[in-house]
Specification:
The protein is α+β, with helices and mostly antiparallel strands and 147 residues long. It is built from 3 helices and 8 strands, in the order ββαβαββαβββ.
């Protein structure tokens, strides 16, 4: 029996995969649980349309990420923190703080996209890599200044 998976399955494959299974397994397990549906001509055409739509969405997202990266390379943000003697901070500047400062500059960035190796603990100017998309990295200048 040929079926099309509706969800990712650890042993059978990814969503949209067309595979041959035993008739009883397909009829009694996969179909009733909504894990697959029969591979008819109509369903195969729907899967192809969904793949094309997903591919277009990914391409659009990649283009937007590249545009954001080029704008980020020219951008900088300032973070004001409390500091003591010797330009040592009382706390530290984290990826979440940098993401928040970038949001103030108009960039929708999550803290997980800020690739900060270690928290910043001194005043100064730092170049921080930010990844707005897969395999795309921008360099943002972060100014850490005293209150």
């Amino acid at each position: 029996m040929k079926v099309i998976l509706t969800k990712d399955h650890p042993t059978l494959g990814e969503e949209g995969t067309i595979l041959e299974v035993a008739p009883g397994y397909g009829r009694n397990f996969l179909l009733p649980r909504g894990l697959a549906y029969p591979a008819t001509g109509h369903h195969i055409a729907l899967i192809e349309q969904a793949r094309e739509k997903k591919k277009r969405r990914e391409e659009e997202r990649l283009v937007k990420a590249r545009e954001m990266a080029t704008r980020m390379n020219e951008a900088s943000c300032t973070i004001t923190v409390a500091a003591g003697e010797g330009d040592t901070l009382y706390g530290s500047v984290t990826a979440a703080m940098i993401a928040e400062a970038l949001a103030g500059e108009g960039f929708a960035v999550d803290k997980d996209q800020v690739e900060l190796e270690a928290p910043i603990k001194k005043l100064g100017i730092y170049t921080v890599p930010v990844s707005p998309g897969p395999e795309i990295t921008a360099q943002v200048k972060v100014w850490v200044v005293k209150e």
